[in-house]
């Protein structure tokens, strides 16, 4: 049996196990997906390697610390965070580290027919999700504007992303009114019915992705839809980061529709 899993703390709320296990069932794979809550990431990765674990996802608070315990690919190294570890390297080799958050966001846009090449994109937030999304947008040819409550954090991220600029949240109305793509990469909208962007700045030529997936129908997406914008809920990025990890580990095409259905049944 192949064993995959998730490292984080806490992970009791995770939606990854049902999403991956339905894929194993669909493809008749002898595999399980389990969760772990270690105290430290280094010993956990070392132990998983010794036990013959096939692959691990990594989530909060370990994504950045995991980088120093794997051989990261160039994207994970640029983003500065690892969310997927692959143990398929030869014996005694260091496991490889990857970041499928960026690929998850990319496939979410592709699923909705949203082009990034030549687009003007606004990313709200400067944390881990924002880093992955900003790098993806720049790699795909977008001009990226990063707006954050703490401007120094936006400036730090913008310095790492080709062609990006940093802004405060007070500049959002002007930025969004002229943008093609808007991404909320903060938690605003998760705990309360709030939007990080004034509704008056939204417009029908905009594609809006909200990284918040609980609730799915956030105030930002409701107000964007009312203005005629294309909307992408947070479950799509969550789904496709898992799809990318599954395909990296197994070399098989993921049963995307079954994984999507399993995920959305629990949201």
TrEMBL record:
<comment type="pathway">
    <text>Metabolic intermediate biosynthesis; chorismate biosynthesis; chorismate from D-erythrose 4-phosphate and phosphoenolpyruvate: step 4/7.</text>
</comment>
<dbReference type="GO" id="GO:0019632">
    <property type="term" value="P:shikimate metabolic process"/>
</dbReference>
<feature type="binding site">
    <location>
        <position position="234"/>
    </location>
    <ligand>
        <name>NADP(+)</name>
    </ligand>
</feature>
<feature type="domain" description="SDH C-terminal">
    <location>
        <begin position="234"/>
        <end position="264"/>
    </location>
</feature>
<feature type="active site" description="Proton acceptor">
    <location>
        <position position="63"/>
    </location>
</feature>
<dbReference type="InterPro" id="IPR013708">
    <property type="entry name" value="Shikimate_DH-bd_N"/>
</dbReference>
<feature type="binding site">
    <location>
        <begin position="148"/>
        <end position="153"/>
    </location>
    <ligand>
        <name>NADP(+)</name>
    </ligand>
</feature>
<keyword id="KW-0560">Oxidoreductase</keyword>
<dbReference type="GO" id="GO:0050661">
    <property type="term" value="F:NADP binding"/>
</dbReference>
<feature type="binding site">
    <location>
        <position position="241"/>
    </location>
    <ligand>
        <name>shikimate</name>
    </ligand>
</feature>
<dbReference type="Pfam" id="PF08501">
    <property type="entry name" value="Shikimate_dh_N"/>
</dbReference>
<dbReference type="GO" id="GO:0008652">
    <property type="term" value="P:amino acid biosynthetic process"/>
</dbReference>
<dbReference type="Pfam" id="PF18317">
    <property type="entry name" value="SDH_C"/>
</dbReference>
<feature type="binding site">
    <location>
        <position position="211"/>
    </location>
    <ligand>
        <name>NADP(+)</name>
    </ligand>
</feature>
<dbReference type="GO" id="GO:0009073">
    <property type="term" value="P:aromatic amino acid family biosynthetic process"/>
</dbReference>
<dbReference type="GO" id="GO:0004764">
    <property type="term" value="F:shikimate 3-dehydrogenase (NADP+) activity"/>
</dbReference>
<comment type="subunit">
    <text>Homodimer.</text>
</comment>
<dbReference type="Pfam" id="PF01488">
    <property type="entry name" value="Shikimate_DH"/>
</dbReference>
<dbReference type="GO" id="GO:0009423">
    <property type="term" value="P:chorismate biosynthetic process"/>
</dbReference>
<feature type="binding site">
    <location>
        <begin position="125"/>
        <end position="129"/>
    </location>
    <ligand>
        <name>NADP(+)</name>
    </ligand>
</feature>
<keyword id="KW-0521">NADP</keyword>
<dbReference type="InterPro" id="IPR036291">
    <property type="entry name" value="NAD(P)-bd_dom_sf"/>
</dbReference>
<comment type="similarity">
    <text>Belongs to the shikimate dehydrogenase family.</text>
</comment>
<feature type="domain" description="Shikimate dehydrogenase substrate binding N-terminal">
    <location>
        <begin position="6"/>
        <end position="85"/>
    </location>
</feature>
<feature type="binding site">
    <location>
        <position position="59"/>
    </location>
    <ligand>
        <name>shikimate</name>
    </ligand>
</feature>
<feature type="domain" description="Quinate/shikimate 5-dehydrogenase/glutamyl-tRNA reductase">
    <location>
        <begin position="116"/>
        <end position="187"/>
    </location>
</feature>
<feature type="binding site">
    <location>
        <position position="83"/>
    </location>
    <ligand>
        <name>shikimate</name>
    </ligand>
</feature>
<protein>
    <recommendedName>
        <fullName>Shikimate dehydrogenase (NADP(+))</fullName>
        <ecNumber>1.1.1.25</ecNumber>
    </recommendedName>
</protein>
<keyword id="KW-0028">Amino-acid biosynthesis</keyword>
<dbReference type="InterPro" id="IPR011342">
    <property type="entry name" value="Shikimate_DH"/>
</dbReference>
<dbReference type="InterPro" id="IPR046346">
    <property type="entry name" value="Aminoacid_DH-like_N_sf"/>
</dbReference>
<dbReference type="InterPro" id="IPR006151">
    <property type="entry name" value="Shikm_DH/Glu-tRNA_Rdtase"/>
</dbReference>
<feature type="binding site">
    <location>
        <position position="213"/>
    </location>
    <ligand>
        <name>shikimate</name>
    </ligand>
</feature>
<dbReference type="InterPro" id="IPR022893">
    <property type="entry name" value="Shikimate_DH_fam"/>
</dbReference>
<dbReference type="InterPro" id="IPR041121">
    <property type="entry name" value="SDH_C"/>
</dbReference>
<comment type="function">
    <text>Involved in the biosynthesis of the chorismate, which leads to the biosynthesis of aromatic amino acids. Catalyzes the reversible NADPH linked reduction of 3-dehydroshikimate (DHSA) to yield shikimate (SA).</text>
</comment>
<feature type="binding site">
    <location>
        <begin position="14"/>
        <end position="16"/>
    </location>
    <ligand>
        <name>shikimate</name>
    </ligand>
</feature>
<feature type="binding site">
    <location>
        <position position="101"/>
    </location>
    <ligand>
        <name>shikimate</name>
    </ligand>
</feature>
<keyword id="KW-0057">Aromatic amino acid biosynthesis</keyword>
């Amino acid at each position: 049996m192949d064993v995959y899993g998730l490292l984080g703390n806490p992970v009791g709320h995770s939606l990854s196990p049902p999403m991956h296990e339905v894929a194993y069932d669909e493809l008749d794979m002898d595999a399980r997906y389990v969760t772990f809550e270690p105290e430290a990431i280094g010993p956990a990765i070392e132990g998983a390697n010794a036990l013959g674990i096939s692959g691990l996802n990594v989530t909060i608070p370990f994504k950045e610390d995991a980088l120093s315990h794997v051989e990261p690919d160039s994207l994970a190294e640029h983003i500065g965070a690892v969310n997927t570890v692959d143990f398929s390297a030869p014996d005694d080799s260091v496991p490889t580290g990857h970041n499928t958050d960026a690929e998850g966001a990319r496939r979410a846009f592709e699923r909705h027919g949203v082009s990034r090449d030549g687009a003007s994109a606004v990313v709200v937030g400067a944390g881990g999700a924002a880093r992955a999304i900003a790098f993806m947008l720049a790699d795909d040819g977008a001009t990226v504007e990063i707006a954050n409550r703490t401007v120094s954090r936006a400036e730090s991220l913008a310095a790492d992303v080709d062609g990006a600029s940093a802004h405060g949240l007070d500049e959002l109305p002007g930025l969004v009114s002229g943008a093609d793509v808007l991404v909320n990469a903060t938690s605003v909208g998760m705990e309360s019915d709030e939007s990080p962007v004034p509704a008056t700045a939204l417009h029908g030529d905009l594609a809006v992705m909200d990284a918040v997936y609980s609730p799915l129908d956030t105030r930002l997406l409701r107000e964007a839809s009312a203005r005629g914008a294309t909307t992408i809920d947070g479950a799509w990025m969550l789904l496709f980061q898992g799809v990318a990890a599954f395909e990296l580990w197994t070399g098989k095409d993921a049963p995307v529709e079954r994984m999507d259905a399993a995920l959305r049944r629990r949201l």
